[in-house]
Amino acid sequence: MPSLLVFCVLFLLPQLAFSITRHYTFNVPYYFHQNVFAYLETITYFQHLFFSFFFLTCSNICVSYQIKSHNVTRLCNTKSIISVNGKFPGPRIVAREGDQVLVKVVNYVPNNITIHWHGIRQLRSGWSDGPAYITQCPIQTGQTYTYNFTITGQRGTLFWHAHISWLRATLYGPIIIFPKLNETYPFEKPYKEVPIIFGEWWNVDPEAVINQALQTGGGPNVSDAYTMNGLPGPLYNCSSKDTFTLKVKPGKIYMLRLINAALNDELFFGIANHTITVVETDAVYVKPFITDIAVITPGQTTTVLLKTKPSIPNATFFMMASPYFTGLGTFDNSTVAGILKYEKSKKKLPLLKPILPAVNSTSFVANFTKRFRSLANTKFPANVPKIVNKKFFFTVGLGTSPCPNNTTCQGPNGTKFAASINNVSFAMPAKAMLQSYFFGQSNGVYTSNFPVNPPFAFNYTGPPPNNTMVSNGTKAVVLPFNASVEVILQDTSILGAESHPLHLHGFNFFVVGEGFGNFDPNNDPAKFNLADPIERNTVGVPSGGWVAFRFLADNPGVWFMHCHFDVHTSWGLRMAWIVLDGPEPNQKLPPPPSDLPKC
């Protein structure tokens, strides 16, 4: 291993730069990637500073990826999964703020593939955003595509994942963005940094699960386990050997980069007899706050500091995550566990468990999310639009669609489950919207008449209306460049009130307000936080409530917004924004790359 590192350093030294280009290819030998990042995973903060000076400031970093199928065994069940380089979870992207990243994806599996770089702003690089049929056609078997983007104004934790059907069940991995050279964290230096990425495990193929659900119109089967860094942990049958263990030293600060890559579940997370300090979310620094339990929706990332005990305790400690759920359907009501173990502690010690909130603890979730505040200082300002010129009121929730003739459906009252925004269940086009928009060929692909308000008003969080049928269409909202936008997302009680984690591609937004019940346009805006609202890319719409956010439409292109519960996205809880070019050359979307996949 040392000879490999020396080789890398010597090879890269002549190309030192402050903002550099990182090349990743999903197609070359696997051993180099695995060894380098296994090393990065275990080094201390001070070793990391030394190593990253060489590794993270050089332009030709050869990290090798390959999308393929391989067998994985969990819960005594072996199945073939799609992964990158045979690694589950997938390899991490490591970069600095300001770096350019190029990732060449080579598809060796029968499935169509796209990769989304979740939370990356993609300023004027919408061709690399990744959602299938929104910004690109999929990468077909045997084809390649190079994603090319620059990390601008972001530092912290994000993640990448497949963005077609339910393939992200196994195709996901961390994105770690360090500050620019000579810049430090705005909080205490950690001794070590550890990504913890949550996922879900199915004993069957998740593609078969969602395909069956869409065919029958019923709800999909739930996962068989949650995972922590790909491992279910000892609370599941036949899983004690598949447990993530974090070994720590006393009196040290560990940075835990929490990522929820689960398909359909929000999670509570806690460590027995330890508190954590939240310092960053969605690659945005926050005013630090201490908590026993963190809540994290699918699509969100939360970086926390863990300060270990001053001396070796006479116990080991479970790190556990369990679901938060308020809907009417079924869900995976199980718990994933890892182990926090102090180095040089006795072999046989009591194993303590954290006390996690009840599964439907909406009040806990609301109180936790309200604690997030931007730093809002000179170096890290909260540039929330104070005046808005575009306002939207969107209902989000479930609904139904008719069962086809001569067919039996398993949804409510013999219908099919659906989901919508403003009663529009988004129909995925057969061609990529961004390409159609760029070349002025939108006819037959999409229309620009997405409703800015619900088609009819009702008591959104009260008794549901008798008619729960949704409409269908491929509709978009068109925004002029630099428009100041305010969006109200209102949950509905149709088929059960529940939280919806909404993710907006291409932008960060400021969460200026939230509450329970129906949004009151006369009184609620006066309570908006315009001083230090949290800046995010994914926000949970409160169960039986509403959330308000604002953003500046400064990124030309076509941008997806959808629920990050994949089942709801599959049912149609999704839409697209089109942001027009600005007048200046640096405010226009460049032409597509020559290797953009074709449908």
Automatic annotation (TrEMBL):
Claim: Transport is one of the keywords in the record: no
Localization per record: Secreted, Extracellular space, Apoplast
Example of a GO MF term: copper ion binding
Protein name listed in UniProt: Laccase
Annotated family: Belongs to the multicopper oxidase family.
Cellular component GO terms held in the UniProt record: apoplast
Xref: PANTHER family: LACCASE, MULTI-COPPER OXIDASE
GO BP terms: lignin catabolic process
Domain of life: Eukaryota
Database matches in Gene3D superfamilies: Cupredoxins - blue copper proteins
Enzyme Commission number(s) from the entry: 1.10.3.2
Pfam families: Cu-oxidase, Cu-oxidase_2, Cu-oxidase_3
Signal peptide extent: 1-19
CDD domains noted in UniProt: CuRO_1_LCC_plant, CuRO_2_LCC_plant, CuRO_3_LCC_plant
InterPro entries in the cross-refs: Cu-oxidase-like_N, Cu-oxidase_2nd, Cu-oxidase_C, Cu-oxidase_fam, Cu_oxidase_CS, Cu_oxidase_Cu_BS, Cupredoxin, CuRO_1_LCC
Cofactor: Cu cation
NCBIfam families referenced in this protein's UniProt entry, alphabetically: laccase (TIGR03389)
